[in-house]
Amino acid sequence: MIDIHNHTTYSDGRNTVEEVIQSAMKEGLQIVGISDHFDPYVAQEVCLQPEEVSVYLKEIRTLSEKYPIKVLAGLELGLQSEGILWPGEEMDYYIYSVHTVPGRPDLKTLENPWDIYLQEAISAVDLIDRPGFFGHLDFLRRHIPKAKPPKPGQLMDTLLMKLVSNHVGLELNTSGWMYGIGDPSPQPWVIERYIDLGGRFVTVGSDSHRASQIGNFTVKALSLLRQMGIKEVFYCENGSYIPVPIMEAK
């Protein structure tokens, strides 16, 4: 039904925007979002550049009129406490992702990086002032083979409460299943805790980098959310969160 986390050749994806849209249609999705990397804190060869944003947005808008599927223009924004690099054009939504921590290039070598990562995310979330979703909250599990997953605690609660108070949604990223971790990112208990603390704006993204990955495990993700008692997921458009009811899979 929905997948708003997809990369194209504008960043580190293997397929064009049009190929992504065509694949989404073949998968039977109703809503697809393009969300290429826009991040000053990681290698720039895998990122959309500021001077490319207008062309990127124009292509997405043009193709959205060509195909009978809702196509959203987004960016995966690199988020750090040091600041956010905003694009010159306004997008439908943003996926806010903390990929690195200032002064800690060795983060992926740590067996337990969670206190450092969560503290950075807590500080960075206060910079958000536009609709969007915090991306793949515990994604480090797929990069650190020996890493233990984060556990419930004050730091996680503080981050989730900050998301709620800043009106930031939370992404259920299905790539954990794709990479064989065994569950999505974040783990289901994190999503449940976000809801318990007053959160509402949950969305689904595959984090696809190939057209063949678009919509991967979306049905499984929506089924999981229904089991949690969540009846709708969200996307953003014109500065607002738009709900979409979760229908039972046939």
Helix amount: 25-40%
Total helical elements = 7
Strand content: 15-25%
Instruction: Tell me the strand order in the biggest sheet.
Output: 1-2-3-4-5-6-7
Overview of the structural elements:
With 250 residues, the chain is an alpha/beta fold. 28% of the residues lie in helices and 19% in strands. The protein contains 7 helices and 9 strands. Strands 1-2-3-4-5-6-7 form a 7-stranded parallel beta sheet, with helices on one face. Strands 8-9 form a two-stranded antiparallel sheet. Helix 3 (114-125) runs parallel beside helix 4. It is globular, with a radius of gyration of 17 Å. The chain starts with a strand and ends in a 5-residue tail after the last strand. The model has no long low-confidence stretch (mean pLDDT 94).
What are the key terms here?
250 residues; alpha/beta; seven-stranded parallel β-sheet; two-stranded antiparallel ribbon; 7 helices; 28% helix; 19% strand
Summarize the structure.
By secondary structure, this protein is of the alpha/beta class. The chain has helices spanning 17-26, 53-64, 114-125, 154-165, 175-178, 188-196, 218-227, and strands at residues 2-3, 31-38, 70-78, 93-97, 132-134, 169-173, 202-205, 232-237, 240-245. Helix content is 28%, strand content 19%.
Helix and strand layout, with pairings?
Blueprint: E1 2-3, H1 17-26, E2 31-38, H2 53-64, E3 70-78, E4 93-97, H3 114-125, E5 132-134, H4 154-165, E6 169-173, H5 175-178, H6 188-196, E7 202-205, H7 218-227, E8 232-237, E9 240-245
Parallel strand pairs: 1-2, 2-3, 3-4, 4-5, 5-6, 6-7
Antiparallel strand pairs: 8-9
Helix pairs in contact: 3-4
